[in-house]
């Protein structure tokens, strides 16, 4: 029996406990930056191993001996959403795992326990009687479990993990992640090579004018009118400044101005997001947005000021990891697509920017979208996500480049 088959068999045995853990995590979610209770529950479910705390409320656990390793990421945080699912194990504290992090964590723990169990059996010489003398763990790397905080907020937990140097110390050579995705049917996994998620940067735009009475606009400089024209003009960046073959999004999510209906305010403030699937165009988008905002404000006798808060870069999957993991999943009977891309964002891109990485999307039937108060993947999503992570782990661990 091959190492992969042994781990897969052990993984199946871990799934009932993983489903139970998923329910516990779902019932008691923790918001970004306050993941301590969730971290402790997950650590209690893990097998023994060296634990290093990182990024404030996160941790890294190594399973296996020395040498180059494969990392798997599980997100610890929940969203500030009041749950409406009405299941017995629904959250009641005003937070909710409305993005599937409870499923991801349970799947990661199932994989970690399976790898640990098989390694222990092999070390004790009680593995499958089909094992040959040439069979060894050299074909599969040690596993490094990254329990990451603050996936849903800035500053991003993934960047803190990378900057801490813990992945370098553990010789992590590839990172694997999986995310449940309700736009895909159950039984379908996306292993898309190349860019799969957009860069996502936030902006704050302040337009300052001259306040005055609403009945005498000619004596004022109206920042609200200037802001409205900037909002319209900024949409032309997508159709007239971006390459038509490069997805680009400019969205104003917040606009605030004034305190009275009969007064022209001194300033208007807007916040929103700038997204693109092209890392080279990302900075160009920032520059063009800033130029448009400043010039349109000036044309209305106002002053425009733009601040851009850098977020996630473009998330690009390693081509070989994506193709080979997809082939392995097909061999196991899964339907695999290579076409899922979106202008959503994930700080998993921090790992992909420094090493080969693979983010897979696992189809779930929920009847509700991500970040919805009704979002609740079925329990078989834990098994599907664990299978996807296993495929990525085995593929990355067997690559010759891992030993370089």
UniProtKB/TrEMBL annotation:
Residues 202-297 form the Peptidase M20 dimerisation domain. CDD domains: M20_Acy1. InterPro entries: Amidohydrolase (IPR017439), Peptidase_M20 (IPR002933), Peptidase_M20_dimer (IPR011650). It holds the Pfam family Peptidase_M20. This is M20 family metallopeptidase. It comes from Nonomuraea guangzhouensis.
């Amino acid at each position: 029996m091959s190492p992969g088959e042994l781990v897969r068999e052990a993984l199946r045995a871990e799934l009932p406990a993983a489903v139970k853990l998923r329910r516990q995590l779902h019932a008691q979610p923790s918001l970004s930056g306050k993941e301590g209770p969730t971290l402790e529950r997950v650590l209690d479910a893990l097998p023994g191993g060296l634990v290093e705390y990182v990024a404030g409320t996160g941790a890294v656990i190594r399973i296996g001996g020395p040498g180059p390793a494969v990392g798997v990421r599980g997100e610890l945080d929940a969203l500030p959403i009041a749950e409406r699912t009405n299941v017995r194990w629904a959250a009641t504290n005003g937070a909710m795992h409305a993005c599937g992090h409870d499923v991801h964590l349970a799947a990661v723990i199932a994989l970690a326990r399976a790898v640990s169990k098989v390694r222990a059996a092999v070390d004790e010489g009680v593995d499958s009687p089909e094992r040959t003398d040439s069979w060894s763990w050299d074909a599969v790397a040690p596993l490094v479990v990254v329990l990451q905080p603050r996936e849903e907020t800035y500053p991003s937990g993934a960047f803190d993990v990378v900057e801490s140097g813990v992945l370098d110390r553990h010789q992590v050579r590839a990172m694997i992640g999986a995310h449940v995705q309700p736009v895909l049917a159950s039984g379908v996994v996306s292993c898309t090579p190349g860019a799969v998620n957009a860069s996502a940067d936030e902006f704050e735009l302040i337009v300052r004018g001259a306040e005055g009475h609403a009945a005498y606009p000619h004596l004022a400089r109206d920042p609200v009118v200037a802001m409205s024209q900037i909002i319209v003009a900024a949409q032309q960046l997508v159709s007239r400044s971006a390459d038509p073959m490069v997805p680009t999004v400019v969205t104003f999510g917040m606009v605030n101005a004034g305190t009275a209906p009969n007064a022209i305010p001194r300033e208007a403030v807007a916040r929103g997001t700038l997204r693109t699937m092209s890392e080279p165009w990302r900075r160009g988008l920032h520059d063009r947005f800033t130029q448009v905002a400043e010039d349109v404000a000036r044309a209305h006798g106002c002053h425009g000021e733009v601040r851009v808060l850098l977020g996630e870069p473009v998330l690009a999957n390693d081509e070989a990891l994506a193709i080979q993991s997809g082939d392995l999943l097909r061999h196991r009977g899964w339907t695999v697509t290579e076409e899922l891309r979106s202008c959503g964002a994930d700080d998993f891109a921090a790992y992909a920017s420094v090493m080969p990485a693979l983010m897979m999307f696992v189809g779930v039937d929920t009847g509700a979208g991500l970040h919805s108060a009704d979002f609740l993947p079925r329990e078989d999503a834990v098994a599907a996500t664990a299978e996807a992570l296993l495929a990525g782990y085995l593929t990355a661990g067997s690559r010759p480049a891992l030993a370089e």
